[in-house]
Amino acid sequence: MVNPLKISLAPYIKGGLRKSLEPIAKGYLNLAGFKQVGLRYDDLIQEENDQMQKVLGRLSPREEYDRVWRLRRAINQSIQHKDLPAEQWSEEDSSQQRYLTDRIVQVTNEYTERELLDNPEFKIEPKHH
Amino acid sequence: MQRSLVLNSTNNFKTAFKPSLASSINLVFNAGTRFEDTQGVANVLKNFAFRDTQNRSSLRQVREAEAAGGVLYSSLTRDNLTLSADFIPGHEDLFLSLLADVVKSTKFAPHEYKEVVKPAIDSEVNAAQRNPLIQAIDAAHTIAFRRGLGNSLFSASEQPVDLQDVKKFASKVYSADNVAFLTTGQSDFSSNLSSYFNDLTATGQVSSQPSKYFGGEQRYSLSHDGHSHPSAFIAWGSTSPSPAHNVLAELLGGQSNIKWSRGLSPLSAIEEGNVNALNFDYSDANLFGFTVESSTDLNVKTASQKAVAALKAVAQNGVESAQLQPAIAKSKFNYTLYADSAQGWKQLNGEGLINNNLKSLDQVLGEFDGVSTTSIQQAAAHLLDNKVTLVTVGGRDAPYADELHL
C-alpha cells in the first residue's frame, strides 16, 4: 500500500538532536527552491495514487482552486527560470506548508483499517445465557 | 402486543419488549419529515445513520455487524426515524453500544457527506422518481397537508441540505425524551439500555404544527423509460382519522384472497385500469385515496371517474351490512397481521409510546367492530366534502380534478 507521506524519521527526532538539526532542515527547504516559486511543501507530494486523489477530493473549493493556481504559477516561473518576488514566496507557517498532512493521515488510516477489517482477526465473544 | 408486550420505564426511557427468536433493537425517534426545520434534513439524517462515529468508523460498524451476524438499517416515515439492528441473540451489548455510538457521537464529517451520504440520497430520489405512484403519493401529501406532514420524504437535489442544519436537527431529535426503545429477543434486555444511553441528553420532545388539510392538483409528465405507466392518485384528507377510513378502503378496493382473481370489490370491477384504495394513517391526520394505473392517459381518466363514482355511491346510498362485515373482518385481519410483523410492531408501538397513546390490539379491533353502515357512509360523505387532492403522472389526457365528476 502506498503511503503518500513516504517514510520519515522526523517524528522520532526529539529534544537536543532536533534543535541542532532544525537549522539544517530549514536551510535544505530553502535550497530546494519550491518556496521561491510560491509552492507549499504538500504541493510536492506525488498525487498519482488513489489515496492522494481521495485527499484532494476532500479539499474545499477554495483550497482546490488555490492549489491549482500555485501549481500553474510555479510551472510558469519554472519556464521563465525566474523566482517570484520575495513577498510572494510561500509562507513559513508549517500548518500552511503541511495543509494536506492531516487529511493524508486520515485517508491512510481509512485504507489501513479497511485492509485490517478485510482480513479480520478480532473476536466477538458471545455471551452465554 | 397484549400479553407479549412488556412495558417498562426504567430510567424514564420508554421501552417495550417482545419475545422472539431473533433479537432486535429499534430506536424510534419522533424525527420524521414532519419535524424538519429545513427541507430534506430528516432524510439526510437517516442516511447519516451508521456512518463514522467517535468510536467506530462506518466500515467497522458494518464489519462488526457482519461478524456477529446482524444487519443495521435506518428507516424514515413522515412521523418517525427508526434506527434498527437485527441480530442473533447473544450480541446485545455489541449492538447496544453500536447504536449508542450512532446516536451520541456521529461525526457528520463533511467528506463523508459528499462521498457517501449524498450519492445514497441521490439514488434514493432517483429510484423514487422512476415509480410514478411513489412520486404521485409523495406529491399528494405535500399538496394535501403542505408544510409539516406534507414535507416530502425525499431530499431533492435542487434543495441541498447544509451539513450544519443536519447536525442541529440531530442534536434536537436524538434526545432522551424523544425516543422509544423497542427490543425483541429471547430474554428482555431492556435493563441494559441505561448503561449505554443514560448520558443521552434530554432536550425536550420535538413538536410540529398540527396538521391541516388543504387539497389541490398537480400534474407531472411521465418519463418515457418504458417501465412506467400513466398513473394518478386521487385523495381526500381528514384531520380526524377513524377506523371507518380503513374499512372504507377495504370495502371499495379489497384485494381478492384467491390467486389470479381480481376480486369482487367495486374498484376491482373497473376494467380500464388497476385501481386500489389506500388509507395512510398518521398521528393526527389521514389521507384516503385511490391509486390508478393504466396503459393510457384516457384509461386512467375513465378508471378515475369510476373510482370516484364508487366512493360517491357509498356516500349517497350507504352500504349493505352484508358488504360491510367482510370489509371489517379484512381490516381487522390486516391490522393484526401488521401488528404481528416486525415492521408493524415497531411502527405501532414506537409511535404509541412516544406520543403516549398506545392502544392495545383488542382496543383497535373493537374500534373496527364499531364501524357501522351509518358511520361508514358519514366517513365517505365527510371525505367528499373536502377539496380533492389529485396528482397525475402522464400526458395531456390525464384527468383534471373537475373531470372526475365530483
Automatic annotation (TrEMBL), chain A:
Q: Pfam family of this protein, just one?
A: UCR_14kD
Q: Where in the cell is it found?
A: Mitochondrion inner membrane
Any single GO CC term annotated in Swiss-Prot or TrEMBL for this entry:
mitochondrial inner membrane
Q: Which UniProt keywords apply?
A: Electron transport, Membrane, Mitochondrion, Mitochondrion inner membrane, Respiratory chain, Transport
For whether the record's keyword set contains Chaperone, the answer is no
Q: Which one GO biological process term can you cite for this protein? A: mitochondrial electron transport, ubiquinol to cytochrome c
For whether the record's keyword set contains Mitochondrion, the answer is yes
| Topological type in the membrane | Peripheral membrane protein
InterPro entries the record matches: QCR7 (IPR003197), QCR7_sf (IPR036544)
Per the similarity annotation, which family is this?
Answer: Belongs to the UQCRB/QCR7 family.
Protein name in the entry: Complex III subunit 7
From TrEMBL, chain B:
Its record classes its membrane topology as:
Peripheral membrane protein
Query: Cross-referenced Pfam families, in alphabetical order?
Result: Peptidase_M16 (PF00675), Peptidase_M16_C (PF05193)
Q: Where in the cell is it found?
A: Mitochondrion inner membrane
Its cellular-component GO annotations read: mitochondrial inner membrane
Where mainly located?
mitochondrion
Say yes or no: keyword Mitochondrion present.
yes
Q: State the UniProt keywords alphabetically.
A: Electron transport, Membrane, Mitochondrion, Mitochondrion inner membrane, Respiratory chain, Transit peptide, Transport
Q: Mind listing the GO molecular function terms for this protein?
A: metal ion binding
Query: Where would one find coiled-coil regions in this protein?
Result: none
Q: Which residues form the Peptidase M16 N-terminal domain?
A: 21-155
Which residues are in the Peptidase M16 C-terminal domain? 161-328
* Sequence similarity: Belongs to the peptidase M16 family. UQCRC2/QCR2 subfamily.
Protein name, entry field: Cytochrome b-c1 complex subunit 2, mitochondrial
**What organism is listed for this UniProt entry?**
Wallemia ichthyophaga (strain EXF-994 / CBS 113033)
